[in-house]
Design brief:
The protein has about 220 residues and is an alpha/beta fold. It contains 11 helices and 9 strands. Helix 2 links the parallel strand 1 and strand 2. The two termini are about 30 Å apart.
Length: about 220
C-alpha cells in the first residue's frame, strides 16, 4: 500500500473523526456540517455502528470529495468490499490481517491495520502498510510511540487511536503520532442525541488547533 493522495490528506489534517454510535438513525448532515465547520477533513465510520454502509453512502452523497471518508472496524474482505462499494476511500482494521491488506491493495484502497507489538508493526510494513494504527494507544502510552519512532520504526507513520481526548492529544503528537483517531471525545451518543452540533464544532476546532500549534502551522 503506497502513501497515496488520500492518505497524505489524512496525515496533513492530523485528525480523523471516528463515528461510532449506538443508535441506528443518525441526523448525519448536521453532524458532518459541524465537523467540517470545525476544520475536520477526514471521517471514519466504524462498522460497529448500526447501518454503517448506509451512513458511508449518505455522507458520500452529501459532501462528495469535500472530506476524506473511511470505514473502520473492518475485520474481513467482505466488509471491506461493502465499505468500498458505498464510497469508503480508506479502510481501518483493529488487527493485522495480511489477506485484508492484499485485498485492499488489489482494490487500490489504502488499508491501515491495527497493531500493538513491534512484531505486528514489522509484519504490517512488510505487507505494504505505510500507516499503522496503534490501538489501544491509551494502554501503551506516549513513551511507547516515542521509543518506536526514535528506534527502528522511523519510517512508519503512526495513527494513534483509543482513549485520546483534549487533555492528552498534544502529548501523542509530540511523541511522534502523525494522526490521531478521535472517537467519543469528539462524537458521542449524548452530543448527537441532544443535537449539540455547536459543541462538536468547538471540540473539532480545538483538536485541529492542537495539531497545528505543535506542527508550527497556526494558519
Amino acid at each position: 500500500m503506497s502513501v497515496n493522495g488520500d492518505t497524505l490528506k489524512l496525515q496533513d489534517t492530523g485528525i480523523c473523526a471516528i463515528i461510532r454510535l449506538k443508535k441506528e438513525k443518525i441526523d448525519i448532515k448536521p453532524l458532518i456540517d459541524a465537523l467540517m465547520a470545525g476544520g475536520i477533513q477526514a471521517v471514519e465510520v466504524s462498522f460497529d455502528t448500526a447501518g454503517a454502509p448506509r451512513l458511508i453512502k449518505e455522507i458520500k452523497e452529501y459532501v462528495g470529495e469535500k472530506i476524506l471518508l473511511g470505514a473502520g472496524t473492518i475485520f474481513n474482505c467482505e466488509s471491506a468490499m461493502n465499505a468500498i462499494e458505498n464510497g469508503a476511500q480508506f479502510l481501518i482494521s483493529p488487527h493485522l490481517d495480511e489477506n485484508l491488506l492484499r485485498f485492499c491493495e488489489e482494490k487500490s484502497v489504502p488499508c491501515i491495520p491495527g497493531v500493538f507489538s513491534p512484531t505486528e508493526i514489522s509484519n504490517a510494513y512488510k505487507n505494504g502498510a505505510k500507516i499503522v494504527k496503534l490501538y489501544p494507544v491509551s494502554a501503551l502510552g506516549c513513551n511507547y510511540i516515542k521509543t518506536l519512532k526514535s528506534g527502528p520504526f522511523k519510517k512508519i507513520i503512526f495513527m494513534a487511536v483509543g482513549g485520546i481526548d483534549l487533555s492528552n492529544a498534544a502529548d501523542f503528537i509530540l511523541a511522534g503520532a502523525s494522526i490521531l483517531g478521535i472517537g467519543s471525545a469528539l462524537i458521542n451518543d449524548e452530543l448527537v442525541d441532544s443535537k449539540n452540533w455547536e459543541k462538536i464544532k468547538e471540540n473539532s476546532t480545538r483538536f485541529i488547533r492542537i495539531v497545528k500549534s505543535i506542527r508550527g502551522n497556526n494558519d
